[in-house]
Each structure stands twice: as structure tokens, then as C-alpha cells.
Write a structure and sequence with these properties.
CATH architecture of the domain at 9-76 in chain A: Orthogonal Bundle
CATH topology of the domain at 9-76 in chain A: Arc Repressor Mutant, subunit A
Oligomer: homotetramer
Distance between the termini of chain A: 19 Å
Number of helices of chain A: 5
Order of helices and strands of chain A: HHHEEHH
Shape of chain A: elongated
Strand order of the largest sheet of chain A: 1-2
Helix content of chain A: 55-70%
DNA sequence: GTGGTCTAGACCACC
DNA sequence: GTGGTCTAGACCACA
């Protein structure tokens, strides 16, 4: 896997996993890949995965059974969506709106850019 | 001034200054606050302001006259708006759109949230 | 059964069983649940129960008849109480007292909290 | 420094530091020892201190100024006392009371043990 | 100087 | 097998 810079790898892994859960790749309570397994897949150090999993565990998105592995939390998808949504609306949207205003992008134009985005996504 | 974490302070200062210029706080070619002055105001180390100014200088948003000070570039506002706009559309919008889709926020809802934002801003 | 983390599951099971014995759920020398039975009830691996029973056996709180099962020891309740009491006074109380002092909880207040605890317990 | 086993070293360091803050060793907002400094003092790896500090930061007991160091939070002592108190009363006291009942230790006896504890402490 | 991240590798307890 | 902790050491960005 390719990692961007500017955000720690462990956070990118955490984001990636919570996105996967959000998209329903695992059922509620289903076991997710073990630390070592994921570390090999992503070609990172197990410690880095542990850190990512620890982070998700604090957010109560996954939980741990000792000696067995990590599991997607009950209603993990809904919970994540709720948390992320609130976070997004409160923390990121205001700043995004401010930028839109400063740059003179209104909702009409944003809508068109969004259409564009979706078309390009379909094409790929 | 309060600084977020996750973005270097010097970048936050640079963003803040270019926002001010964008909003027309200084005419083209007008002198902007000196390094020391701004450092005192923002309660940061002068080195940090120097770095911020250096960054803005690379973006050709301000320029420096040795021994005199820093000045807003000609057509600084337009230049900034152009740069920032391209940056925003190419680098940040795709990720924002992806998040919107994941969280199930469509343009309608975003429009309403934007209205809200503007109302709250007026009120304050 | 729900297990806390911070203490191994097998220890939590052992504590739970010795508490049951302390409360007189089984007479001296009475047979306690088999490993498999308990494992199913608690939804844990039989190995974990074996470990818990082994631990209790070391403390001479239960004993084993090969091929038959595990039994509460003679005067098990008294024995447990003695062991636990010493353990508690020597190992845990000092730390508890230290915490009480740091938090500014005196014996008066502790007494009231204890009353509360007993009331809530009766109510449930 | 001597570390017990059963609780990770980084948690013991965190507990130790928050105890120090609770006891008023640092004023509100005063700088606490740097990661490296403390690591040398305690003869542990800097990573271990970072982890302890990260833990305290999540609890909002200390905060960080990048490139400068860690600082005791405003009203850190009161905040800690509040958090710890609630934690103690809700999470630990019920279990302690349960044990006291099981072992047949009443408030009178506990009071005497407490006196003992204080005497021994003064003597040392 | 400060903290933060990552890797590598060892060791442990637990299931 | 599982996760968790700790060490050692390198490297980086930031103030």
C-alpha cells in the first residue's frame, strides 16, 4: 500500500480500516485481520498496525479479545458514521465553507464540481 | 492566537496572512507587519514568522525589501485566489467529496448546512 | 460473562469461583462444575477454565479427583477468607489508603459511600 | 525508579506524574520535564515516556507546545482530582466494598487499619 | 533543543 | 496462534 505524507501511517491505516468497516466489509462483531497479517499485507511494522488498532479501539470502532484477535464493534458502521459525521460537520465543514467563500465558489459551482467528480470516478 | 495541531504553526500563520490579503486588508504593494511585530502579536518565536513569510514569498504572495520589510505583492489577492483555488479543487475537493459520499451527505443537505453556517456567522 | 481487561481471564474466573465458595454456594467437599460445563457457561476456551482451576488448586481452595472432577476443599470458605484477607490488607489496602488521601476522601465520607452502596445493592 | 509488574511501565509513569501534579509539584501551565530528561532520570527508553505523556495528554492533564515541551494543564490538579475521584468511586469502590463485605471487614476495622497506615507512614 | 514516527527485534502473558 | 510492552536506534519536522 502507498502512504501519503503529512498524516502518520498509523492514522492512515486506521482511517482505511474504519472506511472498510463503514463500507460493510465486515459484519458486526466479525473478526478483522490480525496485527501480523495486516502488517505483512501493508508492508509495515507490526507496531504500526498495533498503534492503528489501538487508536480505533479507543474510538470504540473495534474491540479486542485477548489471545484471539480484533473484532468490528457492534453497529460499528453506524457508530463510525455518527462519529465521523459529527466530527466532519463541527470540525471540518466550517473551515471548508470559509474557504469556499474566500475562493468565491458557491453551491451551484460546487454541485457541478461534484458531478464532475462522480463522472470521473465512474469512468475509472 | 490559538493554533491547531496537525498543521505546522508557520503554515497556519501563512494561511492566516494570505487570508487577510485575500480579504483586502492591504493594498497592492502595501507594507505588512514586520516579523518582530507579528511575532509579538501572535506570541510565537520570530523564527516561526520568518518561516511563514519565507513560505509566502516562495508563493510570490509577498516580497521583501532588505532592511525595510515585507510587502503585499502586486495583484496579490487575485494571485492568491488563483493559486488557492487550483490547490483546493485538485487536492482537497476529491477527498471532501469522498467523505461526503461515505457519510451520506448530499448537495441538498450540504446547502442547508451552508445556510446555517452563514446565519451563525452573521449572528456572531 | 463479561470480562474486564487488566486481569487475565483465568484469574477473573478463579476469583469468581472462590467468591462463590466464600458465599457458601457449595458445601465443604461438594463437587463444583466441570471444566467443560463452566467453559460453556462462561463462553471461554476450556483451557482457560483449566488454568483457573489449576490456580485455585495451588491455593488449596479446591482439589481434584482424577477422572471425577473438582471439589471444594474442606473449610474452603474459611481458608479463602484467610488468604484473601491477608492479601487484601497487605497488598491492596495501602494503595487504596494512599488514593483516598490523594483524593481527599476521609473515613466519614467513605462510610457514607458505603451506606449508599449497600442501599443500591438492596434495591437491585 | 523501581517499577512494579502487572501494570505497564508507561502507565506507572503516567500515574506517577499525575500524582506529582495532584500534589502541586508544578503550577498550572508550568513546564514539566522533557521526554528525554525524564527518560534519563527514570532509566527508561524515551519511547516509553512519550507513551506516558501521550496518555496524560489524552486525559487532558498535560498539553504540548510543539518544539517546546509539555506543560501541566490549567487547573490540572483539580481536573485530575475530579476525574480520578469519579473513576475511583464508580469503578473501584464498588468492588472494594464487595471485597470488604466478603472478608467481613467493617468500617470500624477499616478505620483502625487506616490509623495504622498513617502511623506507619509518619514513622518512615 | 523539542516531540513524533517508524523500524527491528526481543520477550511476555494469554488463549 | 493472539496482542502488548519495551528497547534501541534512526530520521524527521518544528521552534
Amino acid at each position: 500500500m502507498q502512504f501519503k505524507q503529512g498524516l502518520p501511517i498509523y492514522r492512515q491505516i486506521a482511517d482505511h480500516m474504519s472506511e472498510q468497516i463503514l463500507l460493510g466489509h465486515w459484519e458486526d462483531g466479525e473478526r478483522i485481520p490480525s496485527v501480523r497479517e495486516l502488517a505483512v499485507n501493508l508492508e509495515v511494522n507490526p507496531n504500526t498496525v498495533i498503534r492503528a488498532y489501538g487508536y480505533l479501539q479507543e474510538e470504540e470502532v473495534i474491540y479486542n479479545k485477548r489471545g484471539i484477535g480484533y473484532f468490528a464493534a457492534e453497529q460499528a458502521a453506524d457508530k463510525i458514521r455518527g462519529i465521523k459525521r459529527k466530527e466532519f460537520v463541527v470540525l471540518r465543514l466550517p473551515e471548508i465553507f470559509k474557504t469556499l467563500e474566500l475562493l468565491g465558489i458557491d453551491m451551484d459551482e460546487l454541485g457541478k464540481l461534484f458531478q464532475n467528480y462522480k463522472l470521473r470516478k465512474e469512468a475509472s
